[in-house]
Amino acid sequence: MYTNSIFTVTGLLVAAVAAVPKPELQHHHQHHPKRDIVWVTEYQEVVETIAVTKTVWVKPSQTQATPFSTQEVKQVQPAAYSPAPVAAPAYVAPAAQSEPAAAPAYVAPVSSEPAAAYVAPVSSEAAAVPTSTYVPPPAPYVAPVASSSAAAAPASSSAAAPSYNSPSDSGSSSGGQSYSGDFTWFDVGMGACGFTSTSDQDVVAVSHVLFDKVSTGNSNTNPLCKKIIYLIGADGNTYPGEIVDRCPSCAEGSLDLSESFFKKVTSNGDGRVLNMKWHM
């Protein structure tokens, strides 16, 4: 009896469950409200350090420049704008530093003092270039007669010079050697004999041939220095002159005269007068 009751109750429960209406299984989309877009701005600070080098050239005349320290320049660049939720921007390397300009070539300082212009000394022995040739009229040579009016040789303050032996192949007149050659003029000054003359003095320079024949090793003590010689002028008169210099370009019988003495002896001849005579 008890067993039948259990089966009866169980059957009723199964029938009741089967009779319960079941909702239809249908697929429904879940609807959600739309979300607003949120924009997020991110800023990134990039620090770039640029080394600045300064070159200072110091001239010898200037003082040494004081040392200086390198200044660091910070440059801030804003990061590129990127909307969220984009990933963080990649690292941006600082811009490459430009290479420093090549150092300027060193230029030696120029002295502020003006350079003195070099003036070549005027040689007292240079022969004047002839512009014309004066040919004196032929006249018989007359030896001058010693007179009281002839200029006396100046006394020398130095020790007595050795005697001078003139060449034996020249003719003699008034006890001295006679020569024939060209007369020219030059700008006198400090001569080989060691003293200074002026253009208005009656002075001459003899040929290096005669001067060197009696050389003592020191031109200031040459026996011919301050010796009086006698020149036969274009007018036939005799003019005494003093030896003060050595002429390196004169032939053996030629003489180089001061300008005023040349004009006096040659009667204002031009530059060079040929075949003139003189004796010691």
From TrEMBL:
<protein>
    <recommendedName>
        <fullName>RlpA-like protein double-psi beta-barrel domain-containing protein</fullName>
    </recommendedName>
</protein>
<dbReference type="InterPro" id="IPR036908">
    <property type="entry name" value="RlpA-like_sf"/>
</dbReference>
<keyword id="KW-0732">Signal</keyword>
<feature type="signal peptide">
    <location>
        <begin position="1"/>
        <end position="19"/>
    </location>
</feature>
<dbReference type="InterPro" id="IPR051477">
    <property type="entry name" value="Expansin_CellWall"/>
</dbReference>
